[in-house]
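## retry 2 of 3
previous attempt timed out at serialization; input unchanged, resubmitting
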Amino acid sequence: MPFRQLRLRGLRFRGLRPRTTAVTAGASALLLLTGCGAADMTKQASPFANAQGARTVTLSVQSWVGAQANVAVAQYLLEHKLGYRVDTVQVDEVPAWDALSQGRVDAILEDWGHPDQEQRYVDDKKTIARGGDLGVTGHIGWYVPTYFAKQHPDVTNWKNLNRYASQFRTAESGGKGQLMDGSPSYVTNDKALVKNLKLDYQVVFAGSEAAQITQMRQFAKEKKPFLTYWYAPQWLFKKVPMTEVKLPAYKEGCDADPDKVACAYPHTPLQKYLNADFAKDGGKAAAFLKKFKWTTEDQNEVALMIADQKLTPDEAAKKWVDSHASTWKAWLS
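## retry succeeded, writing output
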């Protein structure tokens, strides 16, 4: 997610179906997979995508649990209500666009805004088609635990953060306050924001979404203060209530230069994209995915079952489908 800004997050999924093909983003992993320097990640994608005459669908699974929730429900309904075989492929965000363009996956169900890729593949090459709104609005920001915000209400304005730097200090932050991020592979404006807003903080990466969640839950259990980069929708808010820190207001273009960013992250209506041939010739499956649209509450309900209650994606999808017939039946009409 970035280019225009970011789009981060990075939990490597737990409990994916056995036939899922995992695609890693690390350069070393790619070299091992391909044996060459100019590795094409899309060649690791599913052989079932865009198969002529076959009732198969291949969905790209992005590396955070909200996206996993989308795919779990779509997969369950495609298989159990429409009779398709569904293959899922874990591909990082930008390579997923390449795979989609080449027909190696049929659909991306949650994109956080990649204007360069959209221009290239949707507008210029016309190999990818817009699939419509997911129905969920995404937002990235800085957060503190609500118990700390209640004790220190002024901490929720970035102008006051330096007053609390000492309270957010950790062994990893080098004498400065810690701003916790997820993985170094995430696209984020945080280092530029700390520098340009002249904040006495150090960005410290937890390593992954899962590691970040573990650390936040431990801080919350001990009622310790913390400042973290986080995003909505996200099921963790139900377990660890957090309050957003107000950054300088976002204005269109304020994040155009990654080195000069000094504004908040935008609110982004999340979008779906389909391979252009699949969008035209994908029959009931393509029509269904275009109509697939649910709420933040729906997504969080399924994500919570997967990430916190430890249900498999298939079990979580079935549970949601069994209790929300009025929502999903409209997608099949």
